[in-house]
Amino acid sequence: MKHLPRIVLVVITLILLYGTALLVFVDPNIGLELDRHYLLNDTLRFGRGFLWGAATSAYQVEGNCTNSNWWEFESAVDKQGLPRIERGQRSGIAADHWRRYKEDVQLLKEMRLNAYRFSVEWSKIEPEEGIFADSALDHYERVVDELRANGIEPFITLHHFTNPLWFERKGGFERDDSPEILARFARRVAGRLGPKVRFWATVNEPNVYAAEGYYSGTFPPGKQNPARAILVFRNLLRAHTACYLAIKEADPEAQVGLPISVFIIDPAEKWNLLDVLLAHYLNKAYTVSAVEYLTTGVYDLSLPGIGTDHYESGIPDAFDFVGLNYYSRIYCHFKPFAEEKFVAVAPPLTAMQADNGWEIYKEGLIRALYMISSRTGKPIYITENGIADDSDQKRATFIEDHVLTANRAIFERMNVRGYFYWSLMDNFEWTHGFDKRFGLYAVDYATQKRTVRQGSLKYKEIVMTWARRLR
Q: In angstroms, rounded to a whole number, what is the distance separating the alpha carbons of residues 274 and 35?
């Protein structure tokens, strides 16, 4: 019994240390809840210059991107011999946006939107290394002119996941000189379109590109090599800086930013310190490291047991805005003795989900905005936010909840300047093929007819309400 006080003291100390560690590493906003009734009755605070838009990417909507790594990847199989794309689908002519862009600009206008985020397809503009196709640049200039003629702000993404085959076969973004190669492309495109385009997004979701292509292997080149994933992530961030400088050479007044994917990563059990630590390190590696690179020019990534990297560009603050692509959250569970040390856990059965299983979680949007705003005072554009909802039963509420959550963020003095719904029309959703329907407009792929979804009209209603209040 004489050791009992000492044992009690040790136990109390361990409990205090455990509790302190939880307080230090758990996201303080993990339990945040936004009252929907309050959001619905709040005043719209979006400014006069706010960008209301929709987004697409070239490969997913244009069609016939035959010179791209993704075109080749579509016919590949995985280690089990299964198609890389669900049901062996091929993108083909996709939504035929290359030919139908004028019709699609009218869809934007019909929805009362004033901005369109779209990407230019590198494999069409530079089909061979160093050889640029004026016909492709002519096409994108016509798209920009059509947007301008209809009062719609073009918001161009330079790189949205796809590479020309010649670049992929040289090693892609595993190459040390890959940032300079992409910057050469950026310089040519900005030199041609710069006078007519104000907003430029450099590299779409570098964290997704690195994780899917080199960690999970579900995107090209289909590798599963954590060290390569960390290297590619670094090179994509370097490529952003190189493109930023190249665009600024062409047009010093251009607004240039980086769209980052933010999936809120929460511990499966918030009282399990191992889950909490895992969520902390995954969030830091997957998203915070990219934001901190933008502000400091330093890439510092550390995932215990997976890998580390450190790089200093010497060029801090090479960005004018941050693009936020937000959809959902992930729950993680640490399994120290398993081959895969951590696993993603499905959302609770009570959670509302999209067709692809993603939890519908509006609070995650403001948590993502908190994360970015606390690290930079620059403008934030929500460059992607949308839902896969083929039945169209959830789209209206999803749009309303997320737009009003952005409105709440503005009330809390976050510098949100735009909202782009993903996507304008149904498209080729990468490994999901055509099975997941995100579009404001449904596409009948047999006829290419576009039809507005009833749930999408909520977006139009919000924009029209905003416009009336500005009069």
A: 31
CA angle 83, 84, 88 (to 5 degrees): 45
Question: What residues contact 312, with CB distance under 8 A and at least 6 apart?
Answer: 297, 298, 299
For the entire predicted model, the pTM comes to 0.95
Which one of the listed residues 205, 212, 384, 400 is annotated catalytic?
205
* Residue pLDDT, tens place only, 411-459: 999 999 999 999 999 999 999 999 999 999 999 999 999 999 999 999 9
**205 assigned to active site:** yes
The string of pLDDT tens digits covering residues 273-313 is 889 999 999 999 999 999 999 999 999 998 887 889 999 99
Q: Name the residue type at position 403.
A: V
Look-up: residue for tokens 């400014």?
Answer: 47
Q: Using CB atoms within 10 A of its CB, is residue 83 exposed (0-12), middle (13-18) or buried (19+)?
A: middle
Q: What sign has the CA pseudo-torsion 163, 166, 167, 171?
A: positive
What is the 3-state secondary structure of 255-284? EEEEEEEEEEEEECCCCCHHHHHHHHHHHH
- Look at residue 124 and give its three-state secondary structure: helix
Indicate the SS3 state at residue 226: helix
C-alpha span between 196 and 153 (Å, rounded): 9
Token pair, residue 228, equals 């390569």
Can you point out the beta strands (E) in 335-436?
A: 342-345, 380-384, 416-422
Domains of the chain: 4-326+361-470 (3.20.20.80)
